Amino acid sequence: MRKSRVVTLVAAGAVAVGGMAVAPLTFAAEAPRNGCPDVEVLGARGTTERPGLGVLLTPLAQRITREVPQTVRTTAVDYPASFNYTASVRQGVTDLTAKVQRTAAACPDTAFVLTGYSQGADVVGDAVTGPLAGDLDQVAAVLLFGDPSFTAGEAFNVTDGNRSGIFPRRRGSLGAVADRTRSFCNRNDRFCQGGTSLAAHLDYNRFIGDATEFTADRVG
């Protein structure tokens, strides 16, 4: 499998973010759980983070909720985010796909914002290029941070990472959502660059504003 050879590397780096407090998924401007929101933000957290959106995607979802005029519902992908990387990603893809398809069937006007950090970014990418490939009409934005499957040279790449990650995708794999995607990858990030810096992998909160602005443009 493409991911099996560096599971230990992923596990070693992910320990640093495990155990951090995660804010609850209730935000002041969030849409009711029952009914159809204008926008649904789905987030897949990084390895070892507690269930929920995690330390990066929580403030991102909060800011999107505050700054877009539409009603917003936030939903966490329910998956292990564990060191058993390949199986964990597969479970994440299954859950994300089911959530998108269920809401899309009930709410044909809801726009989806798919967000993922670290292992969660891999989940989002695998879902978009796999079981969700035929269900992308309602996907308004895809936001990836520190993606281990980062591929250098894509037009939607943001920041200064210029090498591919430890599990690079084939160039053009995300072509169906290229105009709706932003992939944030710091130079020398241990996972999205195959570099040496764990600090770079933990330094994505500073791009929350850019990601929110892109999302507001896309759902507007």
| Residue runs with pLDDT of under 50 for 5 or more positions | 4-28
Q: CATH class, anyone?
A: Alpha Beta
Helix and strand sequence: HEHEHEHEEEHH
Number of helices: 6
Strand content: 5-15%
Number of domains: 1
CATH topology: Rossmann fold
Biggest beta sheet attributes = 6 strands, parallel
Query: Looking at this structure, what is the CATH superfamily?
Result: Alpha/Beta hydrolase fold, catalytic domain
Using the alpha-carbon principal axes, give the shape. globular
Q: Order of strands across the biggest sheet?
A: 2-1-3-4-6-5
CATH structural architecture: 3-Layer(aba) Sandwich
List keywords for this structure.
220 residues, alpha/beta, Rossmann fold, six-stranded parallel β-sheet, 6 helices, 32% helix
Describe this structure in words.
- The chain has 220 residues and is an alpha/beta fold.
- It has a single domain (4-17, 37-219), classed as Alpha/Beta hydrolase fold, catalytic domain (Rossmann fold).
- The chain is 32% helix and 14% strand.
- The protein is built from 6 helices and 6 strands, in the order αβαβαβαβββαα.
- It has a 6-stranded parallel beta sheet with strand order 2-1-3-4-6-5, with helices on both faces.
- Strand 1, helix 2 and strand 2 form a beta-alpha-beta unit.
- The protein is globular, with a radius of gyration of 16 Å.
- The model is unreliable at 4-28 (pLDDT under 50).
Question: How do the helices and strands line up, and which of them pair or pack?
Answer:
Layout: H1 7-14, E1 39-44, H2 54-67, E2 72-76, H3 85-106, E3 111-117, H4 119-129, E4 139-145, E5 157-158, E6 181-184, H5 198-201, H6 208-219
Parallel strand pairs: 1-2, 1-3, 3-4, 4-6, 5-6
